[in-house]
Design goal:
Shape: globular
Order of helices and strands: EEHEHEHEHEHEEEHHHHHHHEEEH
Mean pLDDT: 96
CATH architecture of the largest domain: Up-down Bundle
Number of strands: 12
Structural class: alpha/beta
CATH topology of the largest domain: Dehydroquinate synthase-like, alpha domain
CATH class of the largest domain: Mainly Alpha
Radius of gyration: 19 Å
Number of helices: 13
């Protein structure tokens, strides 16, 4: 097992290894003195791991209830959020109790937002069961739900008390969902770590899971500790996301987050090469790595449609969008881009 400590507004551990889920109860008890624990999960994950999580929590002395949402991005909305917080109230959870987010990014974001707002804040624990959640969304305290106008537009910063990543849960992921998470893993290599990038290009889907997940978490930890509230360096973690969220929105979320981010990274990289921000060789390396993992590097959506969606992106500031642009492997820049120039930038990368 590897342990990464995050020292943000709350200090907590991210534990990564096999066989950790059966230890959930004792692990939660060590960081949270709750009497009641509410497991929040989805229809894909709960049948696989809900009983293990509940049994472990019960053995540790918790009174356990559970709330299961339909799997998919469509559940990360205001209606489901209200159903969840009403469920918590009906089951008499108090400010000293806790929530357990058992699932992928949708479950983690929804649970975290509920934890941030129910009774003005209660403890929650992230138990990511997808690669994407393990390396990215479970760490750092960003929580949110989607609005009709765009993704993650209603949220709060709320750090978990613990992240428990049992890599054995990744074994039940469909390969396509595992590939989704690889987009975020590639992102970390492009942003910060040429050695990680080289490992990924050498091993492909056979990369060493515990080591790679821990390295991605370390990199995110460093960024979160420098810029917890996303006003500076943390913006770099949005590489591929502004355009990627546009792809998701245009597809009505039939294109998954990981695939959309992969497309966004490819578009930004091609545009960077055409503008001279990075070399053609660097662009070729990045796009080849994305394709090597079986992820898409192009989209059928036109620049106008992606531009329109980008105008609703939460990272927009007035008339400017901060684009994250690669200069070299391990070196990306934050480029404030006038909205008036964004459409032509997207066109250059298609």
């Amino acid at each position: 097992m590897k342990t990464v400590e995050v020292k943000a507004s709350k200090v907590y551990q991210v534990r990564i290894g096999g066989g950790l889920l059966p230890t959930l109860g004792d692990s939660v008890k060590a960081v949270c003195k709750a009497a009641k624990a509410a497991i929040v999960s989805d229809t894909n994950v709960f049948p696989l791991y809900g009983a293990i999580a509940a049994e472990s929590l019960t053995k540790a002395g918790f009174d356990v209830v559970h709330f299961v949402i339909p799997a998919g991005e469509e559940s990360k909305n205001g209606s489901v959020y209200l159903e969840l917080v009403n469920f918590l109230a009906e089951n008499h959870l108090t400010r000293s109790d806790c929530l357990i987010a058992l699932g992928g990014g949708v479950v983690g974001d929804l649970t975290g937002f509920a934890a941030a707002t129910y009774l003005r804040g209660i403890a929650y624990i992230q138990v990511p069961t997808t690669l994407l959640a393990a390396v990215d969304s479970s760490v750092g305290g960003k929580t949110a739900i989607d609005l009709p106008a765009g993704k993650n537009l209603c949220g709060a910063f709320c750090q978990p008390h613990l992240v428990l990543c049992d890599i054995d849960t990744l074994n039940t992921l469909p390969e396509d969902i595992f590939r989704d998470g690889c987009a975020e893993v590639i992102k970390y290599g492009v942003l910060y770590d040429p050695t990680l990038f080289a490992h990924l290009t050498n091993y492909g889907l056979s990369f060493h899971r515990e080591d790679v997940i821990a390295r991605c978490v370390e990199l995110k930890r460093d960024v979160v500790m420098e810029d917890e509230f996303d006003t500076g360096a943390r913006m770099k973690l949005n590489l591929g996301h502004t355009i990627g969220h546009g792809v998701e929105a245009q597809s009505h979320f039939s294109i998954s987050h990981g695939k959309a981010v992969a497309i966004g990274m490819a578009i930004v990289t091609r545009a960077a090469a055409k503008s001279g921000a990075c070399s053609p060789e660097t662009a070729d390396q990045i796009i080849a790595a994305i394709a090597h993992f079986g992820l898409p590097i192009a989209t059928e959506y036109h620049a106008e449609a992606l531009f329109t969606s980008a105008l609703s992106d939460k990272k927009r500031s007035g008339g400017t969008v901060n684009l994250i642009v690669p200069a070299a492997i391990g070196d990306c820049r934050i480029i404030p881009t006038p909205v008036s120039e964004l459409k032509s930038f997207i066109e250059a990368g298609l």
